[in-house]
Give the backbone structure.
Amino acid sequence: MAVAVAVVKWVIRRTADRVPLQVALSGRRFYGSSSNSADATAIEMVNYARSHSRPLNATSYPEALRVLEQGLSIFQGDDASTANAAGRLLLAMATLNVDRGDIRDAMERLKQAADMTYSSIEIRVAALEALTGVHLRMHQDVIASDYGDRCLHLLENAGIKTNGEKLQVLEMRAKAIKGLVELACGRVDSAESYFSGWNVKDIKNRNGLVALTYAEFIHVTGNFALAKQLYELALELCATENTVDISVPSAAAMIPEEVQLGATCALGQLAAHSGHFDEAEQRLTQALKKAEEYYGGQNQKVGIVLLCIADMFGHKGRSEGASYFLIQEGLYRRSLEMLKAPSLDQEGFSKEIDQKDVIALARGGYAQLLLPQRNRAGEAEKMKQWADVIWENNRTTLAKVLEKTETSRDKERKMDATVVTDMRLGRVF
C-alpha cells in the first residue's frame, strides 16, 4: 500500500503540472491498508481540488469534481483507512455540488458517506450534520430533524469506542445542529435545551461551527453582547481550523470557510440591530468581498449578503430619519437576480423554492420600499402578495419582520424577537 499511496501522491503532483488526470490515473486502483496513509492522501486530493475550484465557475467546477471522482475510484476496500479516504472525497464532492446548486447530487453523496460502516465516526457525523443543513436550506425541516436525531443516536452508541475529548466535540456539533433545527421550527424552548449549560469557556477550544450556531441562537433571543463574543470566537476558531486542523472532516455549509463567512455576515447584522451602522457596513462589505472571492460574483451567497446590506440601510434610514431609496432598490434588485427569484408573472409556481426564506425577505423588503411611491404601488403590492405566500417561517411572520423599526428582546422567548439571516443556509432564524 505504501507504494500505491506514493503513486497517488505522484498523480496529484503530476496533475498540478497539467498532466491529464485520466492518463495519470489510468489503470490504478488501490485497496486497503491498516495505516492512515490513504486518508492522508485523500486530504491532499481534497486540498488540490479545493485550490482549483475557487472561485467557482464553469471551468473550475468540473475540473475539481473530476479530480475527486477519479480519486474516489482508486480507494476501495473494507478497512478504516480506505473508507475514511472515500468518505472525505464524498464530503468534498457534496460541498462542490451544493456550491453549484446541485442539491440532489449533494444529498446522494452525503448519504453515501453517512452510511459507510467502516469509516470513522467523524466522517459519518460530518455527513449527517451536512445533510441536516442541506434539508434546512430546502425547508425540509422534518427530514432535517430526522438526520439531526440520527447524528445524536450515532454518538450515543459510540462512547466506548471514541476518545473522550473527540467525543465531546462531536456531541457539541450534533447538539448544535439539532438546536438549529428546533429554532427553524419555531421551538425556541426545545432549541435552548440543546445548548443548556454551554458557555464561552466550553466552546473556546472546540469548533467554529459550534460557536456560530450557538451565537445565532443567542442573537435571536436577544443577548447581543454574548452573541458578538461568540461570533468573534467562531471567526477565531475557523482561522485556526483552516491552517492547523484541515483534517477535521466537514461538508457543505459546515466547512470552515462557510462558517467564517456566516459569522462575518451575522456580525454585520448584529451591529445593525444594535444601531452601530458604521461597523455594520464594514462587516457586511467584508462578507461581500469574501463571498465574491470564494464563490465568484454571481453566486447566490453573494445575493444573500446584498440582501443583508439592503436591510442594514433600511435600519439606518429609520434610525436617522433619512432615505437610502436608490441604494436599497439597487441592492434588492441585484440580490433577487443572484438568488434566481422566480418571475412575478410566472403562473402556478411551486413553493418548493431553494432559499425561499431569503427570496421572500428580499422581495418583501423591496415591496415595503416601493409602497410609498404612488406610481409603483401596484408593483409593490404584487411583490408583497408573492412574498407573503412563499414565507413559511415558523417563528414569526414576514409582516412583523418588515415592520420592526427596532429590535425586540423576546421576553417570552417564543415569538417576534430579532431575526438573523444565515447566509450559509439561506434561512432566516
Remarks:
- The longest helix spans residues 80-100.
- Residues 303 and 338 are 5 Å apart (CA to CA).
- The chain is about 65% helix and 0% strand.
- Confidence is low (pLDDT under 50) at residues 1-8, 14-35, 405-416.
